[in-house]
Amino acid sequence: MVSRVEHPAAGYRKIFETVEELNEPIPAETKGVIPSWLSGSLLRMGPGLFEVGDEPFHHLFDGQALMHKFDLKGDQVTYFRKFIKTDAYVRAMTENRVVITEFGTVAYPDPCKNVFSRFFTYFRGIEVTDNCLVNVYPIGEDFYAVTETNYITKVDPDSLETLKKVDLCKYLSINGVTAHPHTEADGTVYNIGNCFGKNMSLAYNVIKIPPAQKDKSDPIEKSQVVVQLPSSERLKPSYIHSFGITENYFVFVEQPVKINLLKFLSAWSVRGATYMDCFESNESMGTWFHLATKEPAGYMKSHKYRTSAFNLFHHINAYEDQGFIVVDLCTWKGHDFVYNYLYLANLREEWEEVKKAAMRAPQPEVRRYVLPLDIHREEQGRNLVSLSYTTATAVLHSDGTVWLEPEVLFSGPRQAFEFPQINYSKCCGRKYSFAYGLGLNHFIPDRIVKLNVQTKETWLWQEEDCYPSEPLFVPTPGATEEDDGVLLSIVVKPGAERPGFLLVLDAMKLTELARAEVNTVIPVTLHGMYKAPPSP
Ligand SMILES: CCCCCCCCCCCCCCCC(=O)OC/C=C(C)/C=C/C=C(C)/C=C/C1=C(C)CCCC1(C)C
Ligand SMILES: [Fe+2]
């Protein structure tokens, strides 16, 4: 699936430009045939406002949260979008400047305020952003737009109105949680986040939020920390973007991209730096895998799995098989932080410059790691993995650590398989065959890919000057085959008469079933969900 496509016209710049929200849903023009069973809403989050007044946001993860919705009802499709009225957005609009520091953009003090009030603004310390541009997911019967801090924002998935800001710190001992929770069939939500405890004791806390409550109370009020995993380094927790879950275990990968807490708590609050300034790489630790049991919940501290350094943002899937845990990941080789390459100035460069910058960045690879559960002292020095279908290895060393080597499932130079999706309801935590992803060509999203993780066969959807987003899998009702369903992706085709469209692909063959076009560009979206219509 290595893409030979070039982008000399740099049309991808359009997906990093500010747009206006809509007052009401607009009709889309449908070409092709949308399956009649596919009715519901595609909800997605991303940045939509890339500057305030004359102050630009600098990083891909700074733009203000814009929520998008494609509603499907038969072949009638509409598109709607609204900015989430977060504190970051409302205050920026009111003051016409960046008021809350974002991931890679500092909010400078109000120049109209005198030197004393400016000093006290700094002295009060940091105001953590609630800019929920990363994802949207349900908790109980409610929907929340999220970033990775302690603030999540309740939204109305129909009107896209902002309902309320929730501070998870009120309920849980965490400083932030990922934007990639796992949700079980009954609605139980698991997530993981950093916890900077008392006396700076550091941990990664796995949290559990129960499903919708019979008494209609808010399940968040009943959320709890179920497992605590220790940090490998004092004062420097690793950055976590997602985690894995199997029937009986949580899988946490501790990567060498670290948050320097001293920088976070001092430089950041006093001198005015960004979140990006608080990251650093640990050049010697490599990457550590940790396991915890689900029931009873507990950290498996005797299992010390190690491998070479990589950045990790997205787990694809994990499952148990014959005494092993199989973990499939979208990795980026080395400890240099991939987010360093995602400044908007770089992504908006001419194509030749974009390619040059990507040459210096960590290289992507889809990898399978296999973790043996039964480890015996006498088995030192030999490969413990006996699964017939993988070349991944695990070797016990004399210090008790198990060194892992992966099987490469997909690798193409500067061609990433990222933003992975699976048939989640059928396959999460189970042995599976298919992963779907967004193909990044030197970081530019220009194709949709299907990967058979067992045979390594790939399928591709690609069209000239088209920039798709993460493909979400929606199963055909009553399907028995894993890949019987459709993929939904928002695509931008800058020069076209109707430059934004919802693409509907047949997930088996990766062929186009339909597209629903709208007369507006749709800026880049990161993650989202498909919301089925309420059952009659
Ligand atoms: C869709 C195509 C995009 C085009 C380019 C993409 C290239 C992607 C290459 C790699 C994949 C990366 C995936 C990342 C996806 C994503 O959605 O990331 C967004 C992450 C954000 C906005 C993270 C925000 C985190 C914050 C604000 C964390 C804050 C904290 C600290 C840093 C330390 C202290 C705790 C706290 C406050 C939580
Ligand atoms: Fe993500």
Automatic annotation (TrEMBL):
Pfam families, sorted: RPE65 (PF03055)
Domain of life (superkingdom): Eukaryota
InterPro entries with a match to the protein in the record: Carotenoid_Oase
A biological process from GO: zeaxanthin biosynthetic process
Requisite cofactors: Fe(2+)
Cofactor binding, note field: Binds 1 Fe(2+) ion per subunit.
GO-annotated molecular function: all-trans-retinyl-ester hydrolase, 11-cis retinol forming activity; beta-carotene 15,15'-dioxygenase activity; metal ion binding; retinol isomerase activity
Residues annotated to bind Fe cation: H180, H241, H314, H527
Alphabetic keyword roster: Iron, Metal-binding
Family, per entry: Belongs to the carotenoid oxygenase family.
Name under which the protein is recorded: Retinal Mueller cells isomerohydrolase
